[in-house]
Amino acid sequence: MKDLILQVQGVSKVFGGLQALKDVTFDLPAGQIMGLIGPNGAGKTTLFNVINGVYAPSAGRILFRGEDITHRRTYELAHMGMARTHQIVKPLNDLSVLENVMLGACYGQHNEALPNAEKTAREVLEFVGLAERADQLAKSLNVAQKKRLEMARALAARPSLLLLDEVLAGLNPSEIAGMVETVKAIREQGITIIMIEHVMHAIMNVSDRLIVLDYGQQIAEGTPEEIVNNPQVIEAYLGDPEIANRLMQEEN
Amino acid sequence: MSRFKQSFGLIFSLLLVALIVIWPLYTQKATDRETAFVILRAIALAASLNILLGYTGYVSFGHIVFFGLGGYVGFYLISVQQQSLWVALLAGGAAAGLLAWLLGAAILPLRGAYFALATIGINEAVRAFINNFEPFGGPIGMNLNFQVYKDYGGPAQVFQMTFWIMAGLTAAAVILSYLVKTSKFGLGLLAIREDEDAAEVIGVVTPRAKTYAYVLSAIIPGMVGALFFFKNGFIEPANAFPLHSSIESIVMVMLGGQGTVLGPILGAGLYQGLRGLLLINPVFKNIQLAVSGIILLGIVLFIPKGLIGWLHDRYPKLRKVLP
């Protein structure tokens, strides 16, 4: 059996009266890409925030490489080898692209000193295709480049687990194709990935396994083939499949 | 070449400080020495404040509290405990650093305007405390028995010596701000300034980094306070904790360019120069503080990044040469 890098056990999160997550449970073996999908507001980013230590869960337990991290601070998790990107990119605007990525290396799993961090940062920038922009300020990048910058910053930390929050959103088809290749190349380096994505063909293409959330509940888990044929998933996305079918026929 | 390029910013900054030190030696006038002393003090305070304000992005409106506290602790040791100036300087710096350390835990979790307000509150609270603290002379303050100066060779020597110590403290403040800016720790502070939540996700241990920045920004003002009041000969709550001095330091940092090593030096020099001109002008001499308010308004509206920041934006290559 493969090592489990992440175990999420019965995690719930309540905001005031809103049940954002309800009893989410899954295991993630090392080296896989797990897709996390679901309609808007299903709790995907909340789940990331709970795993990443931004919010403490209201109930449940999270283990990272066998260690209980339920109440760890987000910077401790960064040092343990968890890195993430944000759905709404958070570039450090008035720092250069290089400095942004160096920060990842400096404060990531290997706690690198500045000269090493610069070397790592340049390698990673080369990998994500931002090498020529190293000396520009982060705020001068366009959206696609900022997404790559976020990814570079996370990768420079040399993480064991990478949480990617909608890195494809807002990109055009050729940028998406490029990013999908990048994600696959990251897995080749042995980094485990959980990714939230709405671009279905892309996530079905890269994921080994998928989890579907709807109203904070985990409604399905399985391979991409199992997920696309799961009636509950179709209902969550399209409503009642019977009605959907009828509407399709009426249209014809 | 690259090593020279890297340290050029520091060398250039120290050269500017050296110019101010050399000027009164060249003219041989005591008044010029006093003016230079005031400018050096302004640079030391502004460069220290910059570590918190410019690098970390936390606006402290009450930073003068560290100057005042260091002054009081140093003055008390010299005048009441008969300690030497050297002990007083170290104790003044240590007291200021300790206060920052303790305050850090309490007010650094606050962000933005709330932190700024808290710093004003602390300055006023410490002033009120000392007003009622009899060992420090309460509202009347303390006077120095000028016999003490004899240990250092008389008043003339004291003025000469304090000038050199001031020059040393200013150089130390500039070197410290350069070392912080070019270190991994400093990079973490800049990340906090840009986006504290993102910095935490990246792995910057934000509570610790902010506390260190606060302590580092407090120590030299504490030492400067001890030195200043030793030279001054008396201390009272009103001249130890003047809120407007805090604001003047902010104006200097912002005028020169917050977050840069050279900025506070330039800003302090320009501001003090301008202030000197205004003070001898019959029209402006009573409203020179109003002028600093207008300068601050002008900076915020037209060059929010200050002179060096403006240069950085115009000539991006300067960013590396003049950090």
Features:
heterodimer, A: 252 residues, alpha/beta, Rossmann fold, 4-stranded antiparallel sheet, 10 helices, B: 323 residues, mainly alpha, ABC transporter involved in vitamin B12 uptake, BtuC, two-stranded antiparallel ribbon, 2 strands, 1% strand
CATH homologous superfamily of the largest domain in chain A? Answer: P-loop containing nucleotide triphosphate hydrolases
- The N- to C-terminal Cα distance of chain A equals 50 Å
- Cα Rg of chain A: 19 Å
Q: Provide the CATH top-level class of the largest domain in chain A.
A: Alpha Beta
Unreliable spans of chain B? none
Strand content of chain B: under 5%
CATH topology of chain B: ABC transporter involved in vitamin B12 uptake, BtuC
The outline of chain A comes out as globular
Broad structural category of chain A: alpha/beta
β-strand number of chain A: 10
Largest sheet of chain A: 6 strands, mixed
Low-pLDDT regions of chain A: none
Helix/strand order of chain A, N-terminal first: EEEHEEHEHHHEHEHEEHHH
Strands in their spatial order, largest beta sheet of chain A: 6-7-8-3-9-10
Overall pLDDT score of chain B: 91
Integer count of domains of chain A? 2
Read across the widest sheet of chain B, the strand sequence of neighbours is 1-2
